[in-house]
Specification:
Layout lengths: L1 H19 E3 L5 E3 L8 E3 L9 E3 L89 E7 L12 E7 L31 H5 L7 E3 L30 H4 L2 E3 L2 H7 L4 E3 L5 E3 L4 H28 L8 E2 L5 E2 L6 E2 L10 E8 L6 E6 L5 E6 L4 E8 L6 E9 L2 E10 L2
Parallel strand pairs: 2-3, 3-4, 5-6
Antiparallel strand pairs: 1-2, 7-8, 9-10, 11-12, 13-14, 14-17, 15-16, 15-18, 18-19
């Protein structure tokens, strides 16, 4: 009786398990499926183009469709262990695509998911300097890249012109310091350009309107209405780092995009989030032409100064008496070189105005001929005015003495910092 009962229980178990396993006449095996189309199917009928097909209908926390654990304790020196190995032996035709591993977390609709990760890899605490989250290697002699990134469609794969460790088609963003040992020069060949024109004078002169600033970056949490990385809209352009990180506590140098936009609108662009970006690289040719223009002005002014200094016949020479006083003709006007020159705090400009002069003034100009300061002179005979360097920017300036509406002399002075 006990034997019969035991056999009945065993048959019941076998029958129940057999109902979960389906073996078709063509040898296809299915678990929890009635008509396996692939050689081995779990949870679904699968498809004939796959040898194995596994479907997990569970959406509980930490749910996994396939998990492989490889023991790593007590490894021998030089040993290699692999969790998953994929190898494709192919002799494909032109235009064919071969994938060692294909992974996708994409769907046509746009549910409000926090993250979608096509590939997620973590590495750490191995030999110092040899921890790689993702490792890509290009092998052979033909062009390609160890790692390729693109923001185009899956089928729109780039044709790579050389052998690279990494190749990116589309914009690439670095939110922290970029370290490099060699940086290729940007393409600038004449054959790549058209409608080439020189920068006009008005374009160059506007460089003087730019204002450089020192600033600190705001953290995204400090900006009202700023989109964070949790949104399903890709419009974040500030890294969500700790507010006390060096990025947000250190000073930066640059320009304000809104200010530059008023002067050179073509250097400013608007990002999808409405914030403005600035192309500072294109400021370089403007600066170069401005420096060249300034050099021409300096050379022209220097030539004029040399001519004025050599034309002693137009100015009365001054003599020094034994007690050190200047002996000047009483009916003549004189302008002396400022002292000290160059200067960085203040400088004294001495002059002499005859008593019969009705009006006199000293005017200060920059190298573009713009009047910066003026000093009405009420004193007669020998006197001076003091120029405060804190009121001016470093540079070369011209100062002229005008008496009774006539230019007496013009000299240059240099302000340093």
């Amino acid at each position: 009786m006990k034997t019969i009962l035991s056999c009945a229980v065993l048959l019941l178990i076998i029958q129940n398990n057999f109902c979960q396993i389906k073996v078709r006449s063509d040898g296809n095996v299915g678990i929890a499926t009635s008509d396996p189309a692939a050689k081995f199917c779990v949870g679904t009928d699968g498809a004939s183009y796959s040898k194995s097909f596994i479907y997990n209908s569970s959406i509980t926390d930490l749910s996994r469709t396939l998990q492989v654990n490889q023991k790593t304790e007590n490894m021998s020196a030089g040993q290699q262990l692999f969790g998953i190995v994929s190898y494709v032996d192919y002799g494909g035709a032109t235009g064919s695509k071969v994938y060692g591993i294909f992974s996708s977390a994409y769907r046509g609709s746009t549910p409000n998911l926090a993250y979608t990760l096509g590939v997620y890899a973590t590495a750490g605490n191995g030999y110092n300097g040899r921890n790689y989250g993702v490792f890509g290697h290009i092998q052979g002699t033909r062009n390609g890249a160890g790692i390729v990134g693109t923001n185009t469609a899956v089928g729109d794969m780039p044709t790579i012109d050389r052998i690279y460790a990494g190749y990116f088609k589309g914009k690439m963003k670095v939110t922290d310091t970029l370290f490099y040992y060699e940086l290729s020069k940007l393409p600038s060949d004449r054959e790549l350009k058209k409608d080439i024109r020189n920068l006009d004078q008005n374009y160059i002169s506007k460089i003087l309107q730019l204002q450089g600033v020192k600033y600190k970056l705001r953290h995204p949490s400090e900006i009202s209405g700023y989109q964070s990385g949790e949104s399903d809209t890709a419009n974040t352009d500030l890294p969500n780092e700790d507010i006390n990180s060096v990025r947000y506590t250190s000073d930066h140098l640059g320009f304000i995009a809104q200010d530059v936009q008023k002067i050179y609108p073509e250097l400013v662009c608007e990002h999808p989030n409405g914030k403005l970006g600035l192309n500072t690289i294109d400021l370089i040719p403007i600066l170069v032409e401005a420096i060249k223009e300034q050099q021409l002005l300096i050379e022209d002014i220097q030539l004029r100064l040399n001519e004025l200094e050599s034309d002693s016949g137009n100015l009365k020479s001054e003599t020094v008496t034994k007690n050190g006083d200047l002996n000047l003709e009483s009916n003549s006007s004189y302008l002396f070189q400022n002292d000290p020159n160059p200067f960085n705090i203040d400088t004294k400009i001495r002059y002499r105005i005859p008593k019969e002069a009705s009006d006199a003034a000293i005017y200060l100009y920059d190298l573009q001929g713009k009047q910066i300061l003026s000093f009405a002179i009420t004193d007669r005979d020998l006197s001076y005015v003091i120029i405060n360097g804190y009121d001016l920017n470093p540079g070369i300036y011209l100062y002229a003495l005008i008496v009774n509406g006539r230019e007496i002399d013009t000299k240059s002075m240099i302000l340093t910092k």
